[in-house]
């Protein structure tokens, strides 16, 4: 089929109903980044996505927004404890006071000083408590995130649609890394007994396409017990992935691999 | 999105205020369970927060991208729930969807007007045609699965869906012009 014939199928493909030969033909055009079909399907996705607006209107639970923002804020590094300090400009007017007034002022100053010190102590305690609460919330959130991640890893691992892969280490002293490639849920990576890594370095997972440059999928670090468990999204068609590879990179990852492949598995 | 890339959580609040309701409505329609829908919507927005760098403004508008991601998540949930082992070799519908490009970026109508248009269009379709499109979109069924579910001939189902989608495309074209 040529592009003109395939154009009639773009929306059905975007909807996910297309099967068999028609689907295979269109995917063949997309796989080679056909200049007509690729933008055509992207536009069709926009059209089909509008069907979302036909769902019966429903009010999200009141607490959902807060839950999302709590989860985001605890993971964000945007927490800032900024305490603005304003220096008041007191007037420097001098006046004549009798002695008793000076004594009263001194007593008042003493009481005020004592009160301020007490308040500062209480503020310090309050700040300490807030810090502890924040730490506890972050630890709790980190545990929750880990649980969520473990659950996602388990879902991908157990799915019958996942393709299990063994990433073999180039260094025989290193453990094997397992990957589970799922077309929709993503790629799950697991490993244990990994050696610890310096914080300035990271591991980076790559999709190696049949043609073209490797595509970064995820950067990760073994945890304190040497375990790895993560799920990263699949960002290219599975049939275009020739291999999965892991390299060691500077912290933050690299746009393209800068070191030799440390683990690798052939996919197709 | 640029503010999200700069880890400004306030920007995510703005996006939630704009898209939270339609995304929740969509996910609830697919998942059918409020507790699961809540969990999925939370996952979708967290995924948006974590993967903002994978969304490129130049490749299309955010709303449909978000709807596509939410639909994929909710359909994955539905598939797991039903324990069906349907193998959909659908590599284009990842958790993070591919490019979603608006046909005419110049025509800018607001979301509520577009929602009215879509609902009116769906209501105007014959019951059987509307049902076929709903089974495809909200339940992730293929042509042959819809034919089996409705007891209609495969060709009939294809023709319903093709006709419905064509009307949708035309209607959106009119609405945004």
Please describe the topology of this protein:
The complex is a heterodimer of chains A (268) and B (177).
Chain A: H1 3-7, H2 10-15, H3 20-31, H4 37-49, H5 64-75, H6 99-158, E1 163-169, E2 177-182, E3 186-191, E4 201-209, E5 215-220, E6 228-232, E7 241-250, E8 261-266
Antiparallel strand pairs in A: 1-2, 1-8, 2-3, 3-6, 4-5, 4-7, 7-8
Chain B: H1 2-5, H2 9-31, H3 34-50, H4 62-82, H5 111-124, H6 127-139, H7 143-150, H8 154-175
Helix pairs in contact in B: 2-3, 2-4, 3-4, 5-8, 6-8, 7-8
Any overview of this molecule?
- The complex is a heterodimer of chains A (268) and B (177).
- Chain A has 3 domains: 3-51, no CATH class; 100-158; 163-266, Immunoglobulin-like, CATH 2.60.40.
- Chain A has 268 residues and is of the alpha+beta class.
- Chain A has helices at residues 3-7, 10-15, 20-31, 37-49, 64-75, 99-158, and strands at 163-169, 177-182, 186-191, 201-209, 215-220, 228-232, 241-250, 261-266.
- Chain A is elongated, with a radius of gyration of 30 Å.
- Chain A starts with a helix and ends with a strand.
- Chain A has 6 helices and 8 strands, in the order H-H-H-H-H-H-E-E-E-E-E-E-E-E.
- Mean pLDDT of chain A is 82; it is low at 78-94.
- Chain B has 2 domains: 1-101, RNA polymerase sigma factor, region 2, helix turn helix motif (Rna Polymerase Sigma Factor, Chain: A, Orthogonal Bundle); 104-177, Arc Repressor Mutant, subunit A, CATH 1.10.10.10.
- Chain B is built from 8 helices and no strands.
- In chain B, helix 2 (9-31) packs across helix 4, helix 5 (111-124) runs antiparallel to helix 8 (154-175) and helix 6 (127-139) packs across helix 8.
- Chain B is globular.
- The two termini of chain B are 26 Å apart.
